[in-house]
Amino acid sequence: MNDFVIPAPPVPTIPTTDGGLYPVRRVYCIGRNFAAHAVEMGHDPDREPPFFFQKNPDNLDASGTFPYPPHSQDVHHEVELLVALKSGGSDIPVRHALDHVWGYGVALDMTRRDLQGEAKKAGRPWEIGKAFERSGPVGPLMPVAQAGHPDQGRIELRVNDDLAQEGDLNQMIWKVPEMISYLSKYFELAAGDVIMAGTPAGVGPVRRGDRMRASIEGLGDLAVSVT
Fold it and tell me: Which keywords does this chain's UniProt record carry (predicted)?
């Protein structure tokens, strides 16, 4: 007997620029992957081994709205490149890593900074600050055939038309092939896995009524309203 004992939850998806839907399996997020952001968060920007945390697949949201979450008075924006895999495996060599990429998009890693800070001080996991409902606004994914493999290009975020974050993808400490290869040493990657590739300096708070516009050169814009 293979019947589900409760209704099966829907598969989380991200729309694509070619009109399809990309099913999400797992969400890996790299921390402090831009040197200037590492400095603003009080850390040494030297190239130390990367570290990752996770969001839940259904945290990703393409609705264009971000509901201000409960139990926080300090929610921050973080604009990021999103990498979507079409295949995976274990111990993937750096030189073959990009063969596993389906496409790229623009995303936001919204963070309950006050709750994250409390977790850090207590030596606890970050999920309460990172993996809450609709904490990952995303734009449409662009396939590699259209986007190529962007390793440079402007990345920025504007809040109410004011520039808040800016940088270039070439400033990432760990590049996309390295991230894929590193993760595959500890996890068996697979189709449907996405990687949020880190944020440049300038993270800061948002308020209800704010309008965010994230963009990455060659990948378009993501407009999100805070409600």
Answer: Hydrolase, Metal-binding, Pyruvate
User: Distance of alpha carbon 103 from its chain centroid, rounded?
Assistant: 14
- Is position 5 within any domain? no
What are 157-179's pLDDT values in tens digits? 999 999 999 999 999 999 999 99
Complete DSSP assignment for the chain: ----SSPPPPPPEEEBTTS-EEEP-EEEEESS-BHHHHHHTT---S-PPP-EEEE-GGGEE-SSEEPPPSS-S-EEE-EEEEEEES--BSS--GGGGGGGEEEEEEEE--EEHHHHHHHHHTT--SHHHHSSTT-EEB--BEEHHHH----S-EEEEEETTEEEEEEEGGGBSS-HHHHHHHHHHHS-B-TTEEEE----S--EE--TT-EEEEEETTTEEEEEEE-
Strands 211-216, 21-23: parallel, antiparallel or unpaired by DSSP?
A: unpaired
Contact at 8 Å (CB) between 15 and 21? yes
In angstroms, the CA 116 to CA 166 distance is 23
Number of structural domains the chain divides into: 1
- Residue 4 in domain: no
Tell me if 14 sits within 8 A of 21, measured CB to CB: yes
- Domain hosting 30: range is 13-226
Q: Tell me if 1 is assigned to some domain.
A: no
Residue 34 and residue 182: Cα distance in Å, rounded?
A: 17
Each residue's pLDDT tens digit, 115-151: 999 999 999 999 999 999 999 999 999 999 999 999 9
Flag whether 218 is in a domain. Answer: yes
